[in-house]
TrEMBL record:
InterPro entries: HTH_MarR-typ, WH-like_DNA-bd_sf, WH_DNA-bd_sf
Name of the molecule in the record: HTH marR-type domain-containing protein
Pfam families the record matches: HTH_27
Chain intervals for the UniProt region annotation (Disordered): 179-200
Biased composition (Basic and acidic residues): 179-191
Residue ranges occupied by any HTH marR-type domain in the UniProt entry: 245-298
Entry's Gene Ontology molecular function annotations: DNA-binding transcription factor activity
Amino acid sequence: MAGLTMLQEAPNQGYASGAPAALVIADSADVAAAALDALALAGCTARKRVSFGEASADLSNYDGLDLIVIEAAGAPDALLDLVLARADTMARERSLGIVATVLPEQVDVAVAQLLGPHCQILCNPARAERLSAIAGAKWHARGVMDDVNREAESVRLRRLSEEVARIAETLARLTRSDDAEPRVGVRDRGSGYRGPDPAPGVEIDAAEIRSVIRARRMRAQFFADELFADPAWDMLLDLFAAQLERRQVSVSSLCIAAAVPPTTALRWIGTLHEAGLFERQADPSDRRRAYIGLSAKGIDGMRSYASAVKRAGLYLV
């Protein structure tokens, strides 16, 4: 088990020694143990462990860091969002990575404060997931993003977007008359992809989207879940239905809709947010809570795709 090394006077010791330096925020050594194990395996040095009480008072005194590791189990509710907000500010100002491990009931609070390429949120993670997250955060802090899992998911997301765009564009071309005025393509240089405007008379209602979601969930009765794990599309469908219903979706609810482990769902939420398809929406009645919704780009893409499928007489899947 890795031991804790107290913060030294030299502000750049972490860089000088070659081992990335981490500040661990946890309320006990027992809670911090798994993070320390992952840090050691990733070749990082835990420079200091501070409690949530100490972190809420001041984080600016801790220099020479590459990343901040937060273990939220047991953290007082009154301090959790404050510490997360301060850690996020510090990470943005100093180009640090953040790895925050939270309990299921803390997911909404975490996403309300932490969401961006410098943050990774874990929930009930396996040892390998902790190690992967810390390795990714370490290299982000030093200007190198080589987290293999994240890269693989980014590639998959791009392929998903391209496939949706290709299908929508093909269906739109097949269903319009030969003498119709040419439409702008589904994809454009500015947004990565953009579907054609929904045709007049083509209506999409939430019940149709919900039926697609139910059909997808029914597959689990006949096949192993992991054969069809597709969290990006499952979340896009859920948020599209919610948009049509004029209903807001909490982060924890969206994680359930993804039908994958919470840490995987949270990683995909971050990826789709970075891709400009999701947006974080504040809860005006509770600043500690955030909702996730489709961005204008996401809504446009989903409407265009669904409209093109219906015009072609096909079914959403």
